Known about the structure:
Elements: H1 8-26, E1 48-53, H2 57-69, E2 73-80, H3 83-98, E3 124-126, H4 130-136, E4 140-143, H5 150-159, E5 163-166, H6 174-189, E6 194-196, H7 204-214, E7 221-230, H8 244-250, H9 262-265, H10 268-278, E8 284-290, E9 305-311, E10 317-324, E11 331-338, E12 341-344, E13 349-352, E14 357-360, H11 371-385, H12 392-411, E15 415-416, H13 417-422
Parallel strand pairs: 1-2, 1-4, 2-3, 4-5, 5-6, 7-10
Antiparallel strand pairs: 7-11, 8-9, 8-15, 9-10, 11-12, 12-13, 13-14
Helix pairs in contact: 1-2, 1-3, 2-3, 2-11, 5-6, 6-12, 10-12
Amino acid sequence: MKNRNKNKNKKSESRRAFVQKTAIASGILLSSPIGLEGMVRINENPKLKLALVGCGGRGSGAAVQALTADENVELVAMADAFADRIERSLNGIQKHFDGEEKLDYSTSKHQGKKRKVTVKEKNRFVGFDAYKKAIDLADVVILTTPPGFRPYHFEYAIANDKHVFMEKPVATDPVGIRKVLATAKLAKEKKLNVVVGLQRHYQSKYLDLKKRIDQGAIGKIRGGQVYWNDAGVWVKKRKPEQTELEYQMRNWYYFNWLCGDHILEQHIHNIDIANWFIGDYPISAQGMGGRQVRNGKDHGEIFDHHFVEFTYASGAVISSQCRHIRGTMRRVDEVFQGTKGSLEIGKGEITDLEGNSQYKYPKKWGEDPNPYQVEHDRLFASIRNGSVIADGENGAMSTLTAILGRMATYTGKKITLQEALNSKQHLMPETVTWNTTPPSLPDANGNYVIPIPGKTKMI
């Protein structure tokens, strides 16, 4: 795969600039593509058509990774609510593969280079129903819109027999979770591949440490702590010409119908690891949270900190904390305590009950294959080999776990996982058009209703 592109050195600078830009936008660090042991000879396989639905930074990065994973895959269609996002994404993806040279999108003419991107103007679809048109043209689809839309896009893709890569979280409310669970079941019945962007499941360090935990390295897990504490993300200022719906769509991170709060959108990664390493989903949660620092009009309706205790059927209790406040301790990590010792994943170290090191993961940051690339490599290898990857159910259940945590912090109540799954809470409208009134509206002063523990009710 090192010889995949003879012009790699000439293109490296422009590629690096685009990849770094999309990596920053999606909170990741990209590395070089990797090979797959035993991967089929992809050059002898028919071309797979790829569609990108959701053309932000994460979508652009995922498209690059998908196109890198397989020589015979071609991006043929793109969809987004906004035309400017499609154009920016398309130009960036093309530059990644072709340096500064531009492709004539109206004719798809390319000067002597292998075409990876052939998105004609007629196949750039804009609007809330655009996803259907893009999906219809593809064999494989990437779903990277704001997560509130994910259940509906996933349902359409599987109903139309497409293989899917979809980002986490996979829904923002329990109604969406139930839809994703049903669709994931159908995908397995149809033998369609579904990969969810919980990329730690494809990361060598996590796989190595999970194997050791399963072999009893720390005994039975009794407790743990999972963290996503940092300074927060972007804010998109309101523009005078924007409607309320456009403003919320542009600033989607701060509205629960679109994002689900940062306990869901980001901290799901760490919560998912707790579920994975324990081998179960929690039975209940209780917690606290609020909005102390990040509380302006541009911050919509979400909290800036959450703390949750997740209790599992085994009796294990995981303390979960996420915070978006500048000037505070930053930590993104997972730690577990067992009957025979402890594991700190950030350090990659297993210790005994006296704190003596028993094992240290041997590789440093950046030495392992990039898991964001690996998940696409595995997806396309599975498609080529006639195998099935079925990440949909776990993606839904870990998303539900994070929603359970949000419900606990918003209400201040102890809530069971079953109550969360059966909840009638439906944040996302069934249909969205540019005439739709957003579920959350500001008051006369431009402020949104904020959940208040002890007053906010479980629905």
